[in-house]
Amino acid sequence: MGTRLRKSCIDESRSSCFPSSRSEQTTQTAAALKLNHLDIHDDDDAGSQGAVVKKKKRGQQRDARKNKSRRGLPQISMKVLEKVESKGRTTFNEVADELVAELADPMNSGLSPNKQQYDEKNVRRRAYDVLNVLMAMDIISKDKKEIQWKGLPPSAIEELKIERLGIRNRIESKASYLKELEEQVSPFHSLIDLIRG
């Protein structure tokens, strides 16, 4: 009896899986093809839309990187250095304010006020960092709130040229001193040779 139930269940499941007539078979096949066809198109459309969205995002990311590269630490450092050098005497706030005004992007007017304020604070913070580094390198000096330009230190090549010139002068002076000593010693050598001989 248990085998009959299993066999009848299998027969019933086969009948539901396999159509009994040819017309049912063709309609089911046609419907399946249409659905498969639609699924393929939907996947392609979604994939192509996803690709377009990804391309747009990549383009926006590139644009954002270009704008940020204008405000990177190397660019800000050069601008701070130029400003302090051109003015001679200035203050931290004056340099930071000018830098923020110069780097304020007219294209960013669509940004939220919080984002603009964050960018301004970031630029100001970087300007202060650069000024502190310049002070540590003894390029500028600070007296209370005033900054004074001292000048760039001589480059390593200039320092090496000066050092080389000094060493050459010392070598020349030592060579001339050695020559004097040899001239003083030579009569003694000749006297020793006469006594021995």
UniProtKB/TrEMBL annotation:
Q: Report the InterPro entries cross-referenced here.
A: E2F-DP_heterodim, E2F_WHTH_DNA-bd_dom, Transcrpt_fac_DP, WH-like_DNA-bd_sf, WH_DNA-bd_sf
Q: Which UniProt keywords apply?
A: Cell cycle, Coiled coil, Cytoplasm, DNA-binding, Nucleus, Transcription, Transcription regulation
Question: Which Gene Ontology terms describe the biological processes this protein takes part in?
Answer: regulation of cell cycle; regulation of DNA-templated transcription
Does Membrane count among this protein's keywords? no
Q: Where is this protein chiefly located?
A: cytoplasm
Where found, per UniProt?
Answer: Cytoplasm; Nucleus
Top-rank taxon of the source lineage equals Eukaryota
Q: Where is this region: Disordered?
A: 1-24, 41-75
Q: Name one GO molecular function term.
A: DNA binding
Q: Name one Pfam family in it.
A: WHD_E2F_TDP
Key word Transferase present: no
* CC annotations in GO: cytoplasm; DRM complex
Domain E2F/DP family winged-helix DNA-binding, first and last residues per copy: 68-151
The UniProt entry's sequence similarity note says: Belongs to the E2F/DP family.
Protein name (record)? Putative transcription factor E2F-DP family
* Species per Swiss-Prot/TrEMBL record: Medicago truncatula (Barrel medic)
Q: What is the lineage of its organism?
A: Eukaryota, Viridiplantae, Streptophyta, Embryophyta, Tracheophyta
